[in-house]
Amino acid sequence: MSRAHLPGILAMAAIVLASNILVQFLFGQWLTWGAFTYPLAFLVTDLMNRIYGPGPARQVVFAGFVVGVFCSLIGTQIMLQGDGYTYPAVTVRIALGSGVAFLTAQLVDVAIFDRLRQGRWWRAPLASTLVGSTLDTALFFSIAFSAQLSWLEAGNDVSWANEGLPFLGFGPDAALWVSLAVADWSVKLGLALLALVPFRLIVSWATPNQKTA
């Protein structure tokens, strides 16, 4: 790791920290404010990969992972009151799902980007982010809330997340966590497209002597 990599590490740490805070605040019925900050982690990873290569990109990922684990550990110690009982702000399943999803999705993003880096400029960041975001959403929500994985934390009642409700408020009945996952995934896909603009601009500024197809 060199001093040149520090901005990427700090940016990733800030995004992970902000997302862990903002996930506590609802945005509408299906999202939290954290849904709009967390996808920026893929932009940081892809910028590091394009400018410095996959090695430094992985270092930034691991830095974000460490910050995420630290936030989860703090969250498990914060107790909230509700409906006559006390519960942790971050459950073991949420902490596990968050860590597994982040590390797996980000490392897959790095690998796909590196494989496609010689193609047209938009192909690597778009493909890697779409695959990484999909994997991230599937892993986090299934680990954190699926009834089939309740054995991960037997004392954690996730029946509320598995309540059958109209999908996204108007479709056929589905578990609540499925609607939450799809809404989160949709935001990630939209931001993946929007992120191509700052990706292009920052890469052009940081590597003025390199040509992009």
Strand order of the largest sheet: 1-2
CATH class: Mainly Alpha
Kindly state the percentage of residues in helix.
Answer: 55-70%
In the CATH scheme, what's the topology name? Arp2/3 complex 21 kDa subunit ARPC3
Estimated structural class: mainly alpha
Specify the biggest β-sheet. Answer: 2 strands, antiparallel
How confident is the prediction overall: mean pLDDT?
93
**Distance between the ends:** 28 Å
Cα radius of gyration in angstroms: 18 Å
Write structural notes for this entry.
With 213 residues, the protein is mainly alpha-helical. The protein has a single domain (3-206), classed as Arp2/3 complex 21 kDa subunit ARPC3, CATH 1.10.1760. Helices cover 64% and strands 8% of the residues. The chain has 8 helices and 6 strands, in the order αββαααββααββαα. The protein has helices at residues 6-22, 34-37, 40-52, 54-77, 92-116, 123-145, 176-194, 196-206, and strands at 26-27, 31-32, 79-82, 85-88, 164-166, 173-175. The strands form 3 sheets. A two-stranded antiparallel sheet has the order 1-2. Strands 3-4 form a two-stranded antiparallel sheet. Strands 5-6 form a two-stranded antiparallel ribbon. A hairpin with a 2-residue loop joins strand 3 and strand 4 (85-88). Helix 1 runs antiparallel to helix 3 (40-52), helix 3 runs parallel beside helix 8 and helix 5 packs antiparallel against helix 6. The chain is globular and about 60 Å long. The mean pLDDT is 93. It is found in: Cell inner membrane. This is Probable queuosine precursor transporter. The chain crosses the membrane at residues 28-48, 60-80, 92-112, 124-145. GO terms for molecular function: transmembrane transporter activity. Its main location: membrane.
